[in-house]
Amino acid sequence: MVKIHDISIRDKLVLMLVFTSVLVLIVFLMVFIFTDVESYKQRKANSLVGLAHVIGTNSISTIQFQDNDAATQILSELQNVAPEIVHAAIMDRTGKLFALYSKPGADGLTIPDGLKVNKYLFTDKELYVSQQIFDNNVIVGTVFLESDLSELRDIIRTKYELAVPLFFVAIIFSFIVALVVQRYISNRLLALVATMKEVSNTGHYKESIADNGKDEISMLSNVFEDLMKQIMENQRRKDEFIGIASHELKTPLTSIKGYVELLESIEDKQPNKQFARKALENINKLEKLIQDLLDVSKIQSGQLELNLQEFSIRNFLDDTISGFQMISKTHLIERQDQFNGEIIVADRQRIEQVLTNLLSNAIKYSPGEEKVIVHSSTNGAELVIKVTDFGIGIPQEEQANIFERFYRTRDTSIHISGFGLGLYIAKDIISRHNGKIWVESQEKGSAFYFSLPLMIRQAAPDV
Ligand code: ADP
Known about the structure:
five-stranded mixed sheet, Beta-Lactamase
């Protein structure tokens, strides 16, 4: 069943306006028809009572002289004067029928029980009138009239025939008005929702949505704008803290690293040498983290600069992959090259940082596997490098988020250590080179791609 919450505000507004105007129209038409019918009935009853009175006055002498024929003659005149009269009767003072007129084709005369003297009575199809005849304040008889109400039924039918098309015209008209009115309200709300979505997708809290109005939508926009300002301020403070903290940590760590390296090189005795080596391994991890934090802070303040240089793709891959293979004991890195000896212009260190990050992720997130494939190809316009692993994969709904700062997928965040910074930095480095980075991942394994525009220059046969 459709819940009221699930209907959009736009549709709710249209429904509300159409429903209200239709309701108002129905009430209006009902009141209009009812008062019209009631006033017709009143007029009809008055005119019949008047007629009965006239008949009574004219019949006084006929009753006194017991002249039935004259009385019947008076009554039969009704055929011309009031053709809607079905029965007309004159009773004498004892209540005995004195004269009767029945419209041709009419049934026999029946006087309803509820009809009181000198009153009228409406039934579904007829109006009955009973009127006493007075002569010098003495009752000499009673006139009884029965009138057909087909004219009233015709009037009601005409009213309904008019009301039905009017009803549909009102629905269409109110629908059009509702569409116009809702646009004014819902467009502003939709614009606000679109900005909120945009902000939550991109994390760009600078979008302005402030509104000069004073209504609830303007209030909502302004509250949201304030909220975004607060988030931006918090982010600024956090970035500032990360920048300062990583700078402050870097200097002592470099010094510690120097001493531990010295210790490791001069120490011959075991297990001391082994301890120094272990300490160095952890110092390197710490150093990598601090370096990442420094990079993030540079990206945030727009200070990550590229040191562009020309270099051979093959040389670059040889150096980076073989260097990485030396420290990876669990996985074999398989290379698939599909390029000639192209030269590329890029920041070699930074691109190496990207590839190293993808390789270390490929290994980190494929525990128990033995292989990672690096496929490199050029198509004349760009170099595309693809790093494939056969590990845990990335759920479809999280793939768009993994390039965000500090984002880690639900599956990995508990079991595998990491800070969610590597891909964020890689994305920034690649986009500064006018390249692209993306991921494809199904149930098992992931393939990370990055592309870099090629400079037109072709190298001589590879060195
Ligand atoms: P880190 O690995 O330090 O957490 P990254 O920015 O390199 O940070 O990666 C962000 C997240 O993306 C990881 O936490 C992980 O959830 C997911 N991820 C990255 N590479 C892979 C991969 N090869 N296989 C599965 N998940 C991955």
